[in-house]
């Protein structure tokens, strides 16, 4: 079995580790990420803020791995903010991976991110999983996390206000 090979690491600079602490070095951006590949599987982690300024960097880091038939597992557990630009990246990744026979799975989105995904109806499009292990297993078997685990990833919205 081949070892995980990084495509690229860190937006903190070419010689700094992607494991840098938040605000650790001068000039370190608000998003740190790591992308690793093994065969048709790409596992990426994002830590920090995904916004208009940081989304292009993550997209560039993911692009070598988002090829025909690859399954992308994106761990968003440590995202502290996600703007419309981040949602756009999720949508683009989903469309591209699905069109080429692969898939995209978001790992453990926070309650706030799940609410935003719900509000813009992306919760009905994007697949999620509770952890990386489940996401990898589900990606490689082509199953949906909700169907596999019995989890309902969609959070209910309150009804209309009482009059």
From TrEMBL:
Residues 31-143 form the STAS domain. Residues 7-20 have a biased composition (Polar residues). It comes from the Bacteria. Residues 1-23 are annotated as: Disordered. Belongs to the anti-sigma-factor antagonist family. This is Anti-sigma factor antagonist. It comes from Prauserella alba.
């Amino acid at each position: 079995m081949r070892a995980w090979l990084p495509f690229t690491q860190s937006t903190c600079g070419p010689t700094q580790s992607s494991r840098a602490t938040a605000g650790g070095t001068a000039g370190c951006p608000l998003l740190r990420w790591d992308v690793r590949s093994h065969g048709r599987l790409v596992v990426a982690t994002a830590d920090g803020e995904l916004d208009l300024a940081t989304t292009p960097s993550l997209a560039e880091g993911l692009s070598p791995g988002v090829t025909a038939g690859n399954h992308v597992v994106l761990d968003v557990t440590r995202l502290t903010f996600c703007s419309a630009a981040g949602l756009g990246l999720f949508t683009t990744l989903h469309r591209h991976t699905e069109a080429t026979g692969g898939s995209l799975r978001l790992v453990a989105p926070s309650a706030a991110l799940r609410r935003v995904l719900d509000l813009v109806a992306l919760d009905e499009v994007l697949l999620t999983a509770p952890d990386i292990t489940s996401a990898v297993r589900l990606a490689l078997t082509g199953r949906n996390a909700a169907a596999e685990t019995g989890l309902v990833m969609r959070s209910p919205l309150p009804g209309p206000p009482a009059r």
